[in-house]
Specification:
Number of helices: 6
Number of domains: 2
Distance between the termini: 36 Å
Bound molecules: zinc ion
Number of strands: 7
Shape: globular
Strand content: 15-25%
Helix content: 40-55%
Order of helices and strands: HHEHEHEEEEEHH
């Protein structure tokens, strides 16, 4: 809990994920009628395996997830992915719901933001590595990059963040 308090000193509303998601799941059912029977869960988070525990927690509650995301927690599935998942929504009690969970993730380790230790590794790694790479690359170098068909997700993230890097 010391770790949580340290994080809350910067993000006052931060919670342990299983408590946050558990509360949100109950709220969604009690206030809006979302149930596993009438809801398709879609996840648009970063593909970093460090997030898998939370995705599985949600998947265990809501059922199999539609994978909508990719690097940096951006919904790379786009309009085509949204159209596809819209056709996968179950109906019960006159309701059809789509629950899309998405967003970036930032590691925190011993006072350092954007860092995490990983199983079987002695060093500390970036988290989110995609976002850290954008920051390291910088505005000028991203502007000079040419199209790379083998790195489309990262290029999308770079283009999305470019106006913020310029500032
Ligand atoms: Zn990431």
């Amino acid at each position: 809990m010391e770790l949580l308090k340290e994080i809350q000193s910067v993000f006052a509303k931060a919670e342990v994920a299983r408590i946050y998601f558990g509360n949100q799941n109950i709220l969604l059912e009690q206030q809006y009628g979302f149930t596993p029977g009438n809801t398709r869960f879609a996840e648009g988070g970063c593909c970093d395996e460090i997030n898998e525990l939370e995705y599985r927690l949600m998947e265990n509650y809501w059922g199999e997830r539609f994978k909508f995301g990719g690097l940096a927690g951006y919904c790379h599935g786009g309009k085509t992915g949204l159209m596809a998942v819209a056709h996968h929504i179950p109906e019960a009690d006159g309701q059809k719901n789509l629950l899309l969970l998405a967003g970036p993730h930032i590691g925190f380790h011993r006072g350092q933001w954007g860092k995490v230790p990983r199983k079987g590794q002695t060093g500390i790694t970036a988290s989110c590595g995609s976002l850290a790479t954008v920051l390291q690359t910088g505005y000028a170098a991203i502007c000079e990059k040419s199209d790379d068909r083998l790195d489309r997700q990262q290029q999308s993230v770079e283009q999305l963040l470019l106006p913020y890097l310029e500032k």
